[in-house]
Design brief:
Elements: H1 2-15, H2 29-40, H3 49-58, H4 69-80, H5 85-94, H6 97-106, H7 114-124, H8 129-136, H9 141-145, H10 148-160, H11 177-192, H12 200-205, H13 224-234, H14 241-245
Helix pairs in contact: 1-3, 1-4, 2-4, 4-6, 5-7, 6-8
Amino acid sequence: MTKDACTLLAGWLQARGVPADSLQGGGSLDFALAKQGRRLGHAPLALTDQELAAADHLLAGWRPADWTLADAGRAYLLLSGGATGAQMQALCRTADGGALISLYRAAPLLPYDAALDWQLGEGLRSSIREVFEAIAHHSPLPQRRFDEHRWNHMVLKVLFISSSLTPIVGLDARRNPALADTLFDHIAERRAAGRAVDVQVWRCVAPYLHGTHRDLLAPLQGSQAARLAQQEYDIPGSVSAADWAHLI
């Protein structure tokens, strides 16, 4: 996949007027990554629908819709240089905010190993929202690689920092009873405090609305969220991510 990803990234950048020689590094990898930020800038990569489809074809679930030119340039350097998880760790220790986001956005394209797994855990604990979202959003990596504990922690942190559940790849496929139980408590606590509940939470708990948990839907009676949750409970898999997204 590495070669194909490099070809894709280079094509996107060259289509936006970036000369081929600007994609090359020079010196150490950390220096080259920092240089790419200054050289390419942080304008949106602004991929077309066709380009996004090519990204998903290369790696199902990968959606670099929010990437910048610098993100793409840095990802190209990492892949063309054969970066490893150990190198990722070293780079993350010294990277500034923008480069750190680029590194985590590129993580799904890198060979997965124990060192990369450890570094992703560090990123999930970051207090910088954009760094956390670089891992959690528009990436197939959490769905494919995170164990249940780490997955659940990631979903709960999204809610804690008032981020969005919608861009999480595989949210429906990775629903589980332990997460649902925690989210039922979350719903009760939010309501007791007079605070709104993110409608996407119902997407996570819908298959587990057994017994008294079904009573949690009562305040939503007649709403689209209640209808979708009930439908998903009755017929698992019958409600698409797009259906839930329309509620936002």
